[in-house]
Amino acid sequence: MSKKTGFGDKKTKTKKKQSYTFQQLENIKFEALKLHQRNRFDKAEIAYKKLIKNGIKDPDILMNLYQIYKQSIRIKDCFILYKKIIKETNISYSEITIDFLTFIINKEKDDLANEIVFGNLKENECNEKVISFYAKILLEKKNTNLAIDLLKKALEVNPISIILLSNMGYILQSLKQYEISIEYYKRALRLKSDDAIILFNIANCFEEIGDYQCAIKFYNKSILNNKNNPEALRALGTIYLNLKEYKKSINYFKKCLSINPNNSGALSSLINIYAEICEWTQVKKLFKEINHKKELHKEISPFLFLAIEDNPSNHLIRARETCQKRYGDKIQKLNKPNNKKIKIGYFSSDFCNHPVMQLMQKLFELYSKNDFELFVYSYGNFKDEITAKIKKNVCHFKDISMLQDEDIVSIARADQLDIAIDLQGFTKNTRLSIFSSRIAPIQISYLGYPGTTGAKFMDYLIADRMLIPPENEQFYSEKIIYMPDSYQCNDNSKIISDIKFKRKDFDLPEDGVIYTCFNNGFKITEKEFNLWMRLLKEIKRSHLWLLSTNLLMIKNLKDEAKKRNVDPNRISFAKKLPLEQHLARHSLGDIFLDTFNYNAHTTASDALWAGLPVLTLKGKSFSSRVSSSLLNSLGLNELICLSEEEYFEKALDLGKNPSKIYLLKQKLVKNKLSYPLFDSHLFVKNFESQLKKVLKSDSKH
After folding, report:
1. pTM for this predicted structure
2. How far apart are CA 200 and CA 188, in angstroms?
3. pLDDT, tens digit, for every residue of 353-370?
4. pLDDT of residue 67
5. Could you tell me the pLDDT band of residue 9, with boundaries at 50, 70 and 90?
6. CA torsion sign, 178 to 183 to 188 to 190?
7. What CATH number corresponds to the domain at position 593?
8. Which own/partner contact pairs does 173-177 have at CB distance under 8 Å and 24+ positions apart?
9. Are residues 621 and 530 in the same domain?
10. With contact defined as beta carbons under 8 Å apart, do 273 and 249 qualify?
C-alpha cells in the first residue's frame, strides 16, 4: 500500500486555456457581431467574453458587451466593464461616464453615481463635462446642497474652470442667492471676458436684485458679444419699462422682435406699453397679430387682454391655454387636515401699500380669532407700514420671497392648511405654479385677478351675482362662491385728509363740470375717450381730469383730443399723491366716468368712499362689471348703464344739471353708512360664513 505524501501526490484537474489563431479570433468577432445584430444577445455575450478572455481590447467589442449588460440591467457586470473600458481603451471618459451615470440614475442607484463622481474628482483631473452633467442631475432632483458641494470640491481641484464656475453661478442664481452667484460669474469672466452667456446671467442677477444700472451695463456687454440674442434685448426692454422710459423700452422690444417675431415676452410687454401710453392704433395692430398666431395665446398672460376686449368666453379660452402651457394637467388631492381652528393661507407678492391690500387689511384685522388661524405667505420684496400692520394682525407671516416653488409647497403643506387663497392670478409676479402642485384641500382665487384662472387646480372663485350672473358661470373654470353683497372687501377706517384742496391747486377751472377718471392709462380705450370728447363738446364749461401715469400718455391723449376738435387744455392730469390726500382731492370732481372693458376697482371704491359718484357701463366679463357690483351694493343702481349711449346721455344730463350731482352726492354720503359696501364687519362675517360653508360642503364629497 503506498502512502500519500506531500502536495505533489494530490492530482488536481485544471481547465486548459484554449488558444486561438488571429484568424480564428477574427471569425469569432465576425460571428459575435452578426449575433448581436440579430438580437441573439445571449450567444453574442458568450462570444464577446471569449474574445476579451483572449486579450482582445477592441473598444467596439467592449462597448457592445457593455450595452448587453445595460439592456439586461446587470448593473454589477456593467460597472466592472465600465471600469475596464476607461482603463483599457481610448473611448472618451466623459462620454462613457455620462452614459453609465444616466443608466444607473434611471435605476435609482444614486449611491453608486455619487461614488463614481465624487470618488474620481482628482484621478480624472476633474472632468468638467461629467461634473457639469451630474450637477445638473442633482439640481433636477432638487438636491441642490449636494450639487453645490460637488462643484466646490471640483473647483478645489480645478479652480480656473470657466464651466465649473459658471455652473456654480447658475445653481446659486436658481436659488435666488444672487450676490454670491455674481461673484462666481465674475471669476469666470476673468478667464473669458467676452462670454455672452455669463455676461447675460450676471445682468439677470443684477436685474433680480433691482440694480438696473449694473444690469443694463452687463446686458449691453452681452449683446456686444452676441448681437443675435433676443432675450438680452427683451430684458433691456423690460428694465426700461420698469423705469418708465417707454421710448427706449419700445426700441429694445422691437429689436428683439426683429430677431424673433414670436418672442412672447416682447410682444406682451409691447402691447402693455402701448396700452399704458394710450397708443390705440398699435394696441389694435398687435392684438390682431397675436390673435392670428394661436400658439402665442399660451405664452402671453391673459391679464393683458382684459382691458382690450369684453369677451368672457375668450378670456376663459386664453386662461385655460396659458394654464395648460405653464402648469400642465396636474390634478392632485390632499386630505382635509384635522385642525381645531380653520387654517387659511393667503399668498401674494403685494402685502404692502398696494390696491389689493388697501382693500384687504381690514379683513386681516377683524377675522374671528376663535374660529380661524390665518397664515400669510409673502413672496414680494417690498415692505412698508401696511406689511407691518398685517404682520401684527395675523397668526403667522412667512417671508417666502427667496424660496423656490417646491420649498414653498413643502412649507405650506406642513402647515396643514384647510384653504389656500391666491390673491394674484395672472397679475405681475404671480406664483400660481405653487397652487398647481396643490398646497391645500381647497384652493380659491380672490380679488387680485378679475377673471377666471382657467386652472383645474383652482377649486373656487369668490364673486357676487352682479359680477357673475348664472348665465355667465359657463365662462369660469372654478365653482363660484357667491358673496351676498359685493365681492369686494373694504376698509371703513380709511382716512381722508382734512386738507381743503382748491381747484386751482390742480390747474382745474374754478367753475364748470369736472368729469373725473383716476384709472390707469391702460384701461382707457378709444370707446370711452370718444364719448368723453363728445361730452366736452356738448358742455362748453366742462373739463376732464385724468390721472397722470406717464408723459407719453399725456401727449397722446392731448393729440387725440385735437383730432376730435377739442382743446387739449380742457384735459388736466393729476399727479400721484399719498392715499389720504388723493382721497381728499376727489371732492373737486363732479362725476367719476368709468372705463368699460376694465372698470375702476379699488379706484372706484376710493371715489365712492371719498363721496364722488361713479358712472359705469355694465359689460359681460368680470373686469367690466366690478363697478356695477360696488354701486349695486351701495344702492346706487341708477349709475349703472347698459349701453354706451345711455352712459353718454346720463353723463350729459348730470353735466347739465349740477343740482342732480348734488343730490347724488348727498345720497352717496347717506348710503355709505347704511348699505353693505363699506360695512367691514359685515363683510368679514359673510366672508367667513362662506368659507365655512365651502369646507362643510367639500367634506361631504
Report:
1. 0.88
2. 13
3. 999 999 999 999 999 999
4. 85
5. very low
6. positive
7. 3.40.50.2000
8. 173/201, 173/204, 173/205, 174/139, 174/144, 174/404, 175/144, 175/404, 176/208, 176/401, 176/402, 176/403, 176/404
9. yes
10. yes
